[in-house]
Amino acid sequence: MKVALLGDIGLFGKFCMTNNPKLKEYFAEVGAFLGQHDVVIGNLETPFVEKLSPYGAKSAHIYAAPLNVELLKYLHISHVNLSNNHIYDFGEHSYELTKSILTNNDIEFFGVESKQNFVEKGDVKVALQGYCSFNTNPLKVTFDHSKGVNGLDLDLVVENFKSNSDNGFFNIISMHSGLEHVNYPSQDDIQMARKLGDLAPYVYYGHHPHVVQGVEEYNESLLAYSLGNFCFSDVYTEKSTLPLIKMSENNKTGLILSLEISSTGIESYKSIPIYMSEKSMEFGNESVNINLDEYTKSLKLDFKLYESRRQKLVNDYISGRIKQRDIKFYFKRLNVNSIKLILASKLNALKYKRHVKSKL
Question: How crowded is the C-beta side of 27, counted as CA atoms within 13 Å?
Fold first, then answer.
């Protein structure tokens, strides 16, 4: 079975077909490549929306026009993970609309309501499951079949992992976790990914940081901590004419993970770099420069050295954000929503400790 994994998909801004009717031309080369796979999986960050009614305390709400499902089909995307921190940005109506549009267009989804996907081809059996970590400040988290995104609880992940493995399925676990815009994953994510790799061979399919992180082999498993963005645009809010988040060169680079999976596990894989240029998506090692080897080698560093390098990246990113903003920016954003956001962040930090940190 040939499987392709894609990073964060945001069908808005320049990647909305209403704004850019030539998007299919933009993705022509990469679309043809994805068409060579039996299964193509992406992390769909933007819910489909008809009524703009933002839900919950968020720094930004993002969405996609329903028309953009045509782009998913053009890219041969067969499955999408919905377990992320934006899929509930416009509440239950949009959430249900998103599921309905995907179903009507024969695109499978997982990562919500305890839903998994099971894919079989000949003697190859693959299980797809998705989880959203509290460290991403998600909305509407559930641990059962009720409406909402699958919360990341390590005991639950292990339980489902073992059940699938015992039934002959190879696990691909989609993890929405980590710190945005930082190319080194946290020690928690590394420890969690390797802990699962001690149970049985599998693929850790990471997203949310919006930048590429290392890809390592571990106990016959493949751990891809973040594939970065597949397609994403500058993020705006009503509070300012300037973008809340402006795409950087780092954000514009991502990975496609192409896997050959047999009945005995991973036969081979390729990490294929992509870059969101203005006229087309650049694709392949010859045209895209990426520091994947550096990020991967860093995963083997001594703990203290790794943490010092990671903290430098965190500090550089924070200082860069501060330089882009003045006091007026913060005053404009000081309202009831911002207070709710701070409180939600503190509550999610406690939930993260209970559901993940305490179980590592």
Answer: 21
Query: Distance between CA atoms of 247 and 223, rounded to whole angstroms?
Result: 26
Given a contact cutoff of 8 angstroms between Cβ atoms, the answer to whether 196 and 205 are in contact is no
Rounded to 5 degrees, what angle do the CA atoms 216, 220, 221 make?
50
* Per-residue pLDDT tens digits for 252-281: 999 999 999 999 999 999 999 999 999 999
The Cα 175–Cα 127 span in angstroms is 14
pTM flag (> 0.90) = yes
Q: DSSP letter for 21, please.
A: T
DSSP 204-258: EEEESSSSB--EEEETTEEEES-BBEEE---B--TT-SS-SBPPPTTTTEEEEEE
Angstrom CA distances, 162 to 80, 169, 205, stand at 22, 10, 17
Query: What does the radius of gyration of the chain's CA atoms come to, in whole angstroms?
Result: 19
Interstrand relation of 215-218 and 221-224 (parallel, antiparallel or unpaired): antiparallel
